[in-house]
Write a structure and sequence with these properties.
The complex is a heterodimer of chains A (113) and B (112). With 113 residues, chain A is mainly beta. Chain A has no helices and 11 strands. Chain A is globular. Classes of the chains: A mainly beta (113), B mainly beta (112). Chains A and B meet through strand 4, strand 5, strand 9 and strand 10 of A and strand 4, strand 5, strand 9 and strand 10 of B.
Chain lengths: 113, 112
Amino acid sequence: DQQVKQNSPSLSVQEGRISILNCDYTNSMFDYFLWYKKYPAEGPTFLISISSIKDKNEDGRFTVFLNKSAKHLSLHIVPSQPGDSAVYFCAGYSGAGSYQLTFGKGTKLSVIP
Amino acid sequence: DTGVSQDPRHKITKRGQNVTFRCDPISEHNRLYWYRQTLGQGPEFLTYFQNEAQLEKSRLLSDRFSAERPKGSFSTLEIQRTEQGDSAMYLCASSQFSHGAFFGQGTRLTVV
C-alpha cells in the first residue's frame, strides 16, 4: 500500500525554465507535507513544507501547492538551475503519533545547462 | 553543532556478522528517527525515539535489529546476524516539536 506516490521517476528541464514535480497521496490523515532533495551518497535535505490547512507555501525559488480534494501536491522550482539536479522526495506525516515520515519513491530531476 | 552526524559512513561486513551504527542528533532535538533506504525507493521508517523512550517500531524492524538512545542523546542501531537483504543506506533524522526531520548523511551498509 503506497501512501505517497511520485509517478514520474525522472524529469529533464532546461536551465532557467520551470520544474514541476508532482506527488499524490492516499492517506487522509496526513496533515503536513514536505519535500526533500537528495544527492547521491548523502542524506535527504529538507527543502520546503506545507500544512494541510494551506494551499500554497513559497520559499525563494521553491513553491509547493497542495490540492487536498485531489490529494495532490506539486513542487515548482523557478528558475531551474543545474545545481537543482538531484532526486526529490515528497513525504507526508500525521501529527497524531510519532510524526514519522512516509516517503514517495522520488523523482530524479536533471537540469540541462 | 552543524547537523545530524552518523558514523560510520560506509560499512562492509560479511553475512552473519553483527554491525552497529551511531547517530548524533541536533542537540536540542528531542525526537530521533531511523530510516532505511534501498535503491529506487524512498526512505522507510524503522523506529522512533522521544528522548530516551523508544515509542514506535516498524514491522520492518525484525528481531535482529535493536536500537537504543541512552540518556536521550545519541542513538545506536545494531543489526545482528546480518543478511544480504540488510544491505541499504541507514538514515538517522532528528526533529524538535512537530516539524519535519533533518537527516544525517547516512551509513551505507554492504553485506557480502
